[in-house]
Amino acid sequence: MKLSELNIGKSARITAVGGDGALRQHLLDMGVIPGADVTLVRHAPMGDPIEIRIHGYELTMRKADASQIDIATKGLGASLEADPSEDAYVTQVPEIPHPGLGEGGRYHEEQTAGQNVKPQAAGVNEIIKLALVGNQNCGKTTLFNRLTGSNQHVGNFPGVTVERKDGTVKGHPRVTITDLPGIYSLSPYTNEEVVSRRFVLEQKPQAIINIVDTTCIERSLYLTMQLMELGRPMVLALNFIDEMEAAGGTVRVNELEQMLGVPVVPICAVSGDGVDELIDHVLHVARYQEGPLRQDFCPSTGPRSAVHRSLHAVMHLIEDHAERAGIPLRFAATKLMEGDTLTSEALHLSQNEQETIEHLLRQMEEERGMDRQATMADMRYAFILSVAKRTVVHPRESREHRRSQRIDRILTGRWTALPSFIGIMALIFWFTFNSVGAWLQEVFEEGIDAFTGAADSLLTAWDIAPAVHSLVTDGVLAGVGSVLSFLPIIICLFFFLSMLEDSGYMARIAFVMDKPLRRLGLSGRSIVPLLMGFGCSVPSIMASRTLPSERDRKMTILLTPFMSCTAKIPIYAFFVAAFFPGNGAWVMMSMYLIGIVVGILMALLLKRTAFRGEAVPFVMELPNYRCPIPRNVLHLLWEKAKDFLERAFTVIFLASIVIWFLQTFNFHMEMVGDNIDSMLAQIASPIALLFQPLGLGDWRIITALVSGFLAKESVVSTLGGLFTPESLQAALNATTCYTLMVFCLLYTPCVAAIATVRRELGGKWAMIVVGLQCLVAWLVAWMFALVL
Amino acid sequence: MNVQSWIVLAVVVVTFVAVFRYYWKKQRRSGGCSCGCCDSCGASGSCGIKR
C-alpha cells in the first residue's frame, strides 16, 4: 500500500521510501524513513497535496511523492524503535545530578588546583565567533534578537531567514553571532541550506548554538547529531520548553546532556528565560574549545551493527583525505556514505578507494535490507528515539496544536479553504483601501495640506522671490507631500501581511494553493514571495530563495513584479481622486486583479517556453498557529514607515527638485512661463511618440513614468509638479487614465527591485525583467486603449 | 532677490546637497544593495533581511 492511498485519520508504518535524488534525501532527513509511524491528517482542498503527521509534527507533500512511499498497517512493519539489544549502547541513565558540561568550576578550576593542567582558554580579548543553527521556524531569529538586542524580522513560516545575519552579543562586545537560515540537515537541499552548511564548515565558528524546537525534539535532534559529528564545540538550546511543559510534557535535561555529551540549556527565546545561562555555557565551550563528548551513534551490536562496521571502515580509509580537505572525519564519512557529491569531490579519493567504499556500502545495504541513505537515516533516528525514550516525557496534545487543528478544519477544509482565503484577502484590501487605511490617509492628507498652506503663506509674507517660492511649494512640498500622505495605507497593508505570516496562515496558503500554482508551473511555496510582492518587491524577490529549484526561483522572480506593490498605491490613489471619485475601491481592486491575471498569463507562457518542466516537490512543515507577537508586528511597521519616510525625504525629495528645475528652466537657464518650453519638455517629447498609440503622448506623463524608475511614488510627485488639476483633466480622460494606470501597474519595477534581481540572478536577468515588464506593460495598456 | 529669498534658497540647496551625499554614501557602503534602506553594515533592515 502507498502513503497516497491512506485514508484521512488513519495511521500506518512506513516500510520503504522510494524515489531518488535530493528530494528523497530531504524526506529521509525530515524523518520519513522505514519504521516511522505516520498519520494522514488531511488532503488540501483540491485533493493534493496531503498533510501527514510524523514524529509529532505536520508535514505536507504531494500525492505523487507520497505514492513513492510504501506503508503497512501499523504493527505489521518493523518499528523504528531501537532494537532492545542496542539498549546497552545508549547509556541507561537513572536520575542523575547535573553533569555540568560547559560550565566552569567542576573541571577547570579543580584541575588547576589539583594537577595544574588547566586547559588553555581563548584570550579574553580574542573575538569569538558563534553560529546559530537549527531547523526552520524553531525560533533562531527570536533568539538572535534576544542575544544581540537587534530587531530582525521574525515570522511563523518556515524559511523567513534567507541570508546569514551577524550581530554582537549584548554585554559581550567581542563575541559575534551569526544567525543562519533554518535547515533540517547538513545535506544541501535548498540554497539556504547550502549557505548554512558552508558557513559551519568553512568559517569554523568557535562554537555552535543549536536551537531545537522541543515540541518536535526527535526531528530536531537529527540535525544536532550531524552538528555533533563536526566535532565543533556546541550547546543545545531547548526552545519552546514552556509550551511543552504547559501541555504536561518535559525533557530530563541532565540525562539528555549526559547522553549527548553536550551542554543542554532549556530556554524560552520569546521571554528570554534561560538565555543568560545559554550564553554563559556557549562562551565557556568556545573559550575552552570543548567539543561534544560523543560523536559515535552507531551501535556495535544488534542488527544496526552493519552500519557501525561500514562507517568505521570508511572512516579509517579516508582519514588522510579528510584531514587534507579540512573536513571533520566522522562527518566526511557519513556524508560520503549518503552519497553527498560535495563531500566526495572535496576528498579527492582514488578509483581504488572509491571502489572499496562502494563494496563496503553494498555489504551494509545487503545486511540492513535498505539502501545507504535510508540506512544512515535509520541509524540516526534509532539513536534519537532511544535517547528520547529515556529523556523526553511526551505531552498530551498541546493547546497550540489543538487550536491549530480546529482552525485548520476551516482554513484548509475542502469546501471552506478557498472561500476563506478569498474572504481574508478581500477583507485585507477593504480595510486597507476603503476603511481604516483610507480614513487615516484622509487625516494625514489634511495635516500635510495644512502644513503646505502655512508654508505658502509664510513665504508670501516674507516676499520670497517667485522662483524660490515655486521651488519650495511646487518642487519640494508638492513632491514630498503628495507621497507622504500614503504612509497610512502602506502601513495598513504591511500590518495585515505581517499578521498573515506571523500567525502561520501563510504556510496554509502555500498548502492550499499548491495545486492551482502547479498548473502554472510553480510550487505552493511560490505563493509566499508572490503575496509579499503586494507589499514590496525587494523582500519578496529575496524570499524566493526558500524555493529549492533554480527554475522555480527564476520564474517566481519574473512574476513577482506583476503583483502590485504598495509603492504603486499613491499612483492609483492620485488618479482615482481625479477621475474615478466614488469608485475608488473598485478601480484599485481592478488594478490588483489585472496584475494577478497578467501574472497568471505570463506564468502559462513561461511554462510553455523558457521554463518547461515541472515545479519542484512541495515538502513543507506546517507550523502551529501562533498569536503574532505585538512587539514584532510593531517593529515591522516601524521599519516599513521608516523606510517609506526615508525614501520620501531622499529619492522623492531629490527627484522633485531635479524635475522642478528641468520643468522651470529652458536650456538657456531662463525661467519659462509655460513649461512646454522647458528642458524637460524638450527631452521627453521624442519618447512621447512611443506612447501615442496608447493615447498617452503627453511629454509630462512620460517624464513621470521615467521618474518612476527611481521609485514608484515619484510618478505622483512628478505629476503633481507638472500638472494642475485642470491641466490634468484636459490631458487625460477616464479611459486614457485607466490605460496609464495599467501601464504603471505593469511597467519596469523600481531600481531597488532591479538591483535585487541583479543580486539574486545576475545582470542578464535584471535586464530581462526590465525589458519584459516594459514590453508587457505597453502591450496590455495598448489592448486596454483599443478596448475601452 | 531679497535676503530672505537667498536664505530660503540656501537652505534648500544645502539640504539637497546633504541628502544627496547621504543617499550616495549609503548606496556605496551598502555594497550594491540599492533599495535605499541599508544601514552602515550593509544590511537592509527595513525589508527584514540582513546580509
Low-confidence stretches of chain A: 109-118
Distance between the first and last residues' Cα of chain A: 57 Å
Q: Helix tally of chain B?
A: 1
The fraction of residues in strands of chain B falls at under 5%
Q: What is the strand tally of chain B?
A: 0
The rough form of chain B would be described as rod-shaped
Interface with most residues: A-B, 45 and 29 residues
Quickly give the structural class of chain B. mainly alpha
List the secondary-structure elements of chain B in sequence, H or E.
H
Measured as a percent range, the helix fraction of chain A is 55-70%
Which value, in Å, is the CA radius of gyration of chain B? 16 Å
Strand order of the largest sheet of chain A: 5-1-2-3-4-14
Characterization of this structure:
The complex is a heterodimer of chains A (788) and B (51). Chain A is α/β, with parallel strands linked by helices. Helices cover 57% and strands 9% of the residues of chain A. Chain A is built from 33 helices and 14 strands. The radius of gyration of chain A is 30 Å and the shape is elongated. The termini of chain B are far apart. The interface between A and B is large, with 45 and 29 residues.
Quick summary of this structure?
The complex is a heterodimer of chains A (788) and B (51). With 788 residues, chain A is α/β, with parallel strands linked by helices. Chain A is built from 33 helices and 14 strands.
Features:
heterodimer, A: 788 residues, alpha/beta, SH3 type barrels, Rossmann fold, 4 domains, six-stranded antiparallel β-sheet, six-stranded mixed β-sheet, 33 helices, 14 strands, 57% helix, 9% strand, elongated, B: 51 residues, mainly alpha, 0% strand
Please outline the helices and strands.
The complex is a heterodimer of chains A (788) and B (51).
Chain A: E1 11-17, H1 21-29, E2 37-43, E3 50-54, E4 57-61, H2 63-66, E5 69-73, H3 108-115, E6 128-134, H4 140-148, E7 165-168, E8 175-179, H5 191-203, E9 207-213, H6 217-229, E10 234-239, H7 241-246, E11 250-251, H8 253-260, E12 264-266, H9 275-288, H10 305-325, H11 329-337, H12 341-347, H13 351-368, H14 372-391, E13 392-393, H15 399-411, H16 417-434, H17 436-461, H18 466-484, H19 487-503, H20 505-519, H21 527-532, H22 537-543, H23 550-559, H24 569-579, H25 584-608, E14 620-622, H26 630-664, H27 679-688, H28 699-707, H29 713-722, H30 725-731, H31 734-746, H32 751-761, H33 763-787
Parallel strand pairs in A: 6-8, 6-9, 9-10, 10-12
Antiparallel strand pairs in A: 1-2, 1-5, 2-3, 3-4, 4-14, 7-8, 11-13
Helix pairs in contact in A: 6-14, 8-14, 10-11, 10-13, 16-17, 16-19, 16-25, 17-18, 17-19, 18-26, 18-29, 19-26, 22-32, 24-25, 24-31, 25-31, 26-29, 27-28, 28-29, 31-33, 32-33
Chain B: H1 3-29
